[in-house]
Amino acid sequence: MPSYSSPEFSIMGKIFLKLLLLSLVLQIASSTRTSSSINNIDWWCNQTPHPESCKYYISTQTNNSDEIKQKSWFREILVQSALKQVLIMQSEAQEIEQSMMSKRHKALHNDCLELYENTIFHLNRTIECMHGKRSCSPFDAQTWLSTAHTNIQTCPTAAAELNAVDFKVSKLSNNVTEMISSSLAINAGFMKKSENNHHKANGRKKKFPRWISSHDRKLLKSRSSKKKTDLVVAKDGSGHFSNIQDAINEAAKRESMTRFVIYVRKGTYEENIKVDVKNENIMLVGDGKKKTIITGCRSFKGGYSIYYSPTVAVDGSNFIARDIGIENTAGPTMHQAVALRSSSDMSVFYRCSIAGYQDTLYALAQRQFYSDCYIYGTVDFIFGDATAMFDHCHIYARQPLPGQGNIITAQGRNNIHKNSGISILNSRIKAAPELKPDVDKVITFLGRPWKKYARVAIMHTFLDTLVNPKGWSPWNSSDFALDTLYFGEYKNYGPGSSICDRVEWPTFHAMTSSSEAFQFTIHGFFSDPIFLPSTDV
Q1: What does the pLDDT look like over 255-266, one tens digit per residue?
Q2: What is the 3-state secondary structure (H, E, C) of 503-532?
Q3: Contact status, residue 269 vs residue 310, Cβ threshold 8 Å
Q4: Considering only 64-73, 125-134, 458-467, which range has the smallest mean pLDDT?
Q5: How far from 150 is each of 154, 206, 456, 460, CA to CA, in Å?
Q6: Beta-carbon count within 10 A of 219 CB
Q7: How far apart are CA 482 and CA 479, in angstroms?
Q8: For the segment 37-74, what is each residue's pLDDT rounded down to a tens digit?
Q9: Where would one find the signal peptide in this protein (predicted)?
C-alpha cells in the first residue's frame, strides 16, 4: 500500500480530483439544461390561454434536455399532448362495465366513446397535416382542432341535458379542453390575414365551395347520376338492399375511400342511419325531397340525448346528399328531436328537405354547405358549432307549442379562435303554412347565442313579416354573450328586414361594408384567408 506522500498516491489523487470535478461540472450542466428547458416551456406556454395545464402536460411530453426552438414544433407538441390525454380518456371509458348502467347512462357512455374516437381521428389528422403528410392548410388544421374541442365538450353537455348528475365524465375532460384551446390559439397565428381589400360580397349566383371536385359537381348537377351508382336501395326489394343503413355498412367495407354513390329509390324509409367517421365520400341520391324520405322519431323526452336523437347522423367527411327528405316526426311536445346531425367535413346537402320542430338541424362541427334546401322547425332549429353555410335555402318557422316563440339559429362557438359560425345567403325566411294564420301571435327571432362567441350572419336574404323587429334574442332573457357574440345582417330585403328597431347590442353588426360581409361568403367563410382570390364573389 502506498503512503499518503508517495508519488503513486499523488498521481491517483489528481485523477480522482479531476473525475470529481468533471462529475460536478456535468451535474451543474444537467441542472442548467433542466432549468433552461423549464424556462423554455414556461415561455412558450405563457403565450397560450391556459398556461398552467400547458406547462404540466408539455413537461411530461418532452425530455428535460429538449428546448422548443420553433413555434411549429410547440404547436405540434400541444396537439400530441392533447391526443395522449384523449387516448387515456378513451381507455378509461372502455374499461367501465356497462351491465350495471341504466339505459340512459349506457346511451351517454356510448355517446362519449364515439366522441372520443372521433376526437382521436381528428387530432391524428391534424398532426399528419403539421408533419406535411397530407395536403392541407392551417385553416384545415383549425377546423379539425375546433371539431376536437367541440367533441370533448359534447360529452358532459349531453350528461347535463339529461340531468344525469351521477354520470361520471372523465376528470381529464377540462384539461384536454384547455390543451386543445391552447392549440387553437397557437395555430391561429399561422393563418395569415389577407392583405387584399378588394373583395366584394355582392354576388347572388349559385356557387359551390372550392373543395367540391369537378367530378362531384357533375354528380350534383347531372340528371344521369342515378345511373352511375355503386349500390341501389329500394323498399320493394328490386335493389341491392331494402334499407339504407345496410348499403352504408356495405360501402364501409371498401378498401379505397373514393366517391361511393348510393341511389335510394322513392319511398319512406323508417330508420335511423349513421355514417361513421372513417366511412368517407358517401353520396346518397334520392328521387326528390318529397319522394325519398328518411324518417325517425327519437327525442329528448323519449329518453335520448340530443346527440343520439337524429334520424340521420353523419361523421364521415365529404358526404353528399341530393334530392332526399330527412325528418324527425316526434313533434313539438317531445322537445328536442334532431332530424339531421352532421360533423362531416366538406359535406354538401343539395335539394334536400330537413324537417322537425325543436333542434331540427344539428350542425355539430366542421365545414358544411347546404344549397337549395328546405328547412323546417321551431326553437333553435339550426344549431351547433359547425362552419355551416345555407345558400339559396328556404327556411320555414313552424307552429310552436302554446306560449313558445320561434328561434331560427342557436350557434355554439365557445372559443374565440374557432373558425365556426352560421352564414345564411341568398335565402328566404318565411312562415310555414301551419304558422301563417297565427304569424302575428308568435314571436320569431333570427337567432340567439347558445355559446359565448356565437357567430351568425344573414345576407342577401328575404325576411318575411314573421321576423320580430328586434331581430335577435338574448339567451333566456339574460345578458349572456351580449358583449362577445357576432350577429350580422347585410343587404337583406322584405318586410322583416328593416334594421331600424334591431337590438342595440354593441355586438350586432348592420354591415355596410362589402369587405366585412366577404368573410361570410362562400370563399371567405370556408377558406384560409391566405388563399383568397381578388375577384368579386
Answers
A1: 999 999 999 999
A2: CCCCCEEECCCHHHHHCCCHHHHHCCHHHC
A3: no
A4: 64-73
A5: 6, 30, 18, 30
A6: 21
A7: 6
A8: 556 899 999 999 999 999 999 988 766 546 788 999 99
A9: 1-31
Is residue 138 left, alpha or beta, with left meaning phi > 0 and alpha meaning psi from -120 to 50? alpha
Which pLDDT belongs to residue 206? Answer: 67
> Side chain identity at 476, as an amino acid letter?
N
pLDDT band at 228 (very low <50, low <70, confident <90, very high): confident
- CA 435 to chain centroid, in Å, comes to 32
- Give strand pairing partners of 397: 377, 431
Q: How many residues does the chain have?
A: 537
Residue 344 has which C-alpha cell?
Answer: 362531416
Task: Give whole-number Cα distances, 119 to 122, 126, 147, 199, in Å.
Answer: 5, 10, 7, 35
Q: Which of 345, 380, 385, 391 is catalytic?
A: 380
CA neighbours closer than 13 Å in the CB half-sphere of residue 93: 27
Whole-model pTM: value is 0.90
pLDDT of residue 102: 82
CA angle 377, 379, 381 (to 5 degrees): 50
Catalytic-residue membership of 66: no
Question: What cell does 511 get?
Answer: 354591415
Name the amino acid, one letter, at 8.
E
Q: What is the residue whose three cell numbers read 406547462? A: 55
Which phi and psi angles does 45 have, rounded to 5°?
A: -65, -30
